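The instructor's notes for this session suggest beginning with a concrete chain rather than abstract definitions. Hand out the sequence below and ask the class to guess, before any prediction is shown, which regions might be ordered.
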Amino acid sequence: MSLSRGGRRVSLRARQQAVAGLRGQGDVDASEIAAFIATMAAEMVTLAEIADMKTLAYLADMVRLEAEAQVIDRPGR
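After discussion, reveal the predicted structure:
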């Protein structure tokens, strides 16, 4: 399985290796990651709404809400 990124395909294995590399750094702040995900999800909501993709907008908004909850639940972690 692979996802497209910037016109090229990124394999599941490559993504797993990237995540493993981040975990190995030891300085990954879960709260910062959740805040980043919330920001990206909010942008996806806007794009989906512009394209009249109601289900995608709804799902992206659920991601945003959950990510924001993670920021609140994990302050400074």
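Then share the key points. The chain has a mean pLDDT of 82. The first helix runs from residue 12 to 25.
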